[in-house]
Amino acid sequence: xxxxxxxxxxxxxxxxxxxxxxxxxxxxxxxxxxxxxxxxxxxxxxxxxxxxxxxxxxxxxxxxxxxxxxxxxxxxxxxxxxxxxxxxxxxxxxx
Length: 95
Prior knowledge:
The chain is 56% helix and 11% strand. By secondary structure, the chain is mostly helical.
């Protein structure tokens, strides 16, 4: 369960990192007195193999994040149904 979450976060971080590391674009911020005139403009352009690899890793990380969430929810529901945490052994270790 924990491994799927770690892999999901690593894939998502690697995908977004690759997309931003190889991008060439512009960003702009415009502030205005009537707040309706304020704007933020972000133009990210990644081309070539990094665009494909970054997209695939981001999609895979997002999918694994959903899977890890479902696994965690199923584990929570199962532990509530069983009446709390189980003890591994009822008696102390005997020598």
